[in-house]
TrEMBL record:
<dbReference type="InterPro" id="IPR009080">
    <property type="entry name" value="tRNAsynth_Ia_anticodon-bd"/>
</dbReference>
<dbReference type="Pfam" id="PF05746">
    <property type="entry name" value="DALR_1"/>
</dbReference>
<dbReference type="InterPro" id="IPR001278">
    <property type="entry name" value="Arg-tRNA-ligase"/>
</dbReference>
<keyword id="KW-0067">ATP-binding</keyword>
<dbReference type="InterPro" id="IPR036695">
    <property type="entry name" value="Arg-tRNA-synth_N_sf"/>
</dbReference>
<dbReference type="InterPro" id="IPR005148">
    <property type="entry name" value="Arg-tRNA-synth_N"/>
</dbReference>
<keyword id="KW-0648">Protein biosynthesis</keyword>
<dbReference type="GO" id="GO:0004814">
    <property type="term" value="F:arginine-tRNA ligase activity"/>
</dbReference>
<dbReference type="GO" id="GO:0005737">
    <property type="term" value="C:cytoplasm"/>
</dbReference>
<feature type="domain" description="Arginyl tRNA synthetase N-terminal">
    <location>
        <begin position="3"/>
        <end position="80"/>
    </location>
</feature>
<feature type="domain" description="DALR anticodon binding">
    <location>
        <begin position="443"/>
        <end position="557"/>
    </location>
</feature>
<dbReference type="Pfam" id="PF00750">
    <property type="entry name" value="tRNA-synt_1d"/>
</dbReference>
<feature type="short sequence motif" description="'HIGH' region">
    <location>
        <begin position="118"/>
        <end position="128"/>
    </location>
</feature>
<dbReference type="Pfam" id="PF03485">
    <property type="entry name" value="Arg_tRNA_synt_N"/>
</dbReference>
<keyword id="KW-0030">Aminoacyl-tRNA synthetase</keyword>
<comment type="subunit">
    <text>Monomer.</text>
</comment>
<dbReference type="InterPro" id="IPR035684">
    <property type="entry name" value="ArgRS_core"/>
</dbReference>
Amino acid sequence: MIEKIKKEIKEAIEQKFEIDSIVIEEPKKGVADIAIPLFAFAKLWKTSPMQVYDQFSKIVMEHQQVDKIEFMNGFLNIYLERQKLSEAILKEILEKKEHYGYQDVGHGEPVVMDYSSPNIAKSFGIGHLRSTMIGNALNHIYTKCGYHTVSVNHLGDWGTQFGKMIVAYQKWGNEEAVRKNSIAELQKLYVRFHDEEHQDPSLEKQARHVFSRLESNDETYFELWKWFKEESLREFMEMYDLLGVTFDSYDGESFYNDKMDAVVEELEQKGLLRVDEGATIVDLGQDLPPALIKKSDGATLYITRDIAAIFYRQRTYKANKFLYIVGNEQQLHFKQLKAVTDLMGYHFDIVHANFGLVMIDGKKMSTRGGKFKRLEDVIKKAIDESKKAITEKNPDLKNQDKVAKAVGVGAIIYNDLKNEKHLNVDFNLENMLKFEGQTGPYLQYSSVRIESILKENTLDLSNIDTTFYQEDHYFEIIKQLSQFPHVILKSMEENAPNLIARYIMGLAQGFNSFYGKQRINVENEQHKNANLYFIQMIQIVINEGLRLLGIEPLKEM
Ligand code: ARG
């Protein structure tokens, strides 16, 4: 709502003076609600800021929601009609509830979001976890902005490594062991393959041969591959269950096996292919290394499958916008994907929403060789720790397991999403599980606190005195509430869930300091109702913010 007022004032002045460069600022707390710097116009019109102020003031005052204005240090300061504005903002939230903040800027346009995408027969890595959490949040955020999202888990289930896997399994594998420890066992075989390759270089050739048979649908190899995939997926699904994440499609790389010939043909037709030492490549000019489309033995590559995938997605989902939530280390790959499809004459809107590494004690976190065998164990540990904390704080709580899961998982998600995604993330379970500080549990706890106040008191909406909202400690938070739609929009435009993460943190902190100052259950009924109404609207926004991030809001904890 305040964004709307800012825009209206800006447009009114710009129209009147036929300019287009009015800057609208939000001054620091307590100064004014809105400020317009006047220096630039004074300079332009060769006059004083005071003169400009006089010119602008009439138009600004015409705005319904403006209470008063003043000239201060070269700025035109605007104070808004606090009471009416507060009523309007809170009413909007009350009416829209969790739909508050929805805005149809996408008009149902499809956006394909590619995230998580772990590799079959390999453990679910920390990078895949980041991709899953960021992707899931962006999915919610885009949906909230009126886009039609399609979430795709582009499983890494194809490539020469499966030739190696199959050879390794046939030489040293044990069915029983794979059934029992699936991914761990498969990974062991893969490691062994590489160890023995040093002694026996012919292994590499065998693997290539097997993969090329797999690419041409050899039945025995296909069955083995299928089995590896099933075993791996079973483990991945446990992870998605923990995180509460689902996908619209699990079409992985293998899905494009029969769709790559068409790509190669089209590249050929458009004269883009060149054979270089037996390999088939596309030159991408000065700035990028060529894209390798086929190896000399005819095997396709990661990028070949991504090119086939983007065409398939365009056709199937009628999409032109494609978001890839993948780590920083694949920047070159996505630049090449964009460059190849551009050369082919398509101008897809390809966004590589890249992210950094996860660090433990300053070192890159890796599940291999680390403290934990599997990432799932890390998440389970977070849940266990939350359970301990909860049983200590609230021994009578029902559904302790369910709450512990929401808190433990929420802590990991918040810790990841609170910073800009391209930066590295610190992973410290102890810190992220704390009930104070910039943590998920702190946010959930703030909402639960409001919940318990609301449970003890009944709100009577028909008996409210809204004059209290003019006081700073209310109005500052009400202004914050009115920013929610704007924050959502920005986080969509910048693919930055951290904006929402930071925003709800500010709101929760605002609530907690308000609560430290202001008694809720006051004598005056009308004041009390104003308080209850106010904190209930805060809760709606915190909860919806949490939901957008993929964190479960709680009623008790
Ligand atoms: N499986 C890949 C990896 O683990 C990520 C795939 C990302 N998506 C894509 N369309 N390339 O590195």
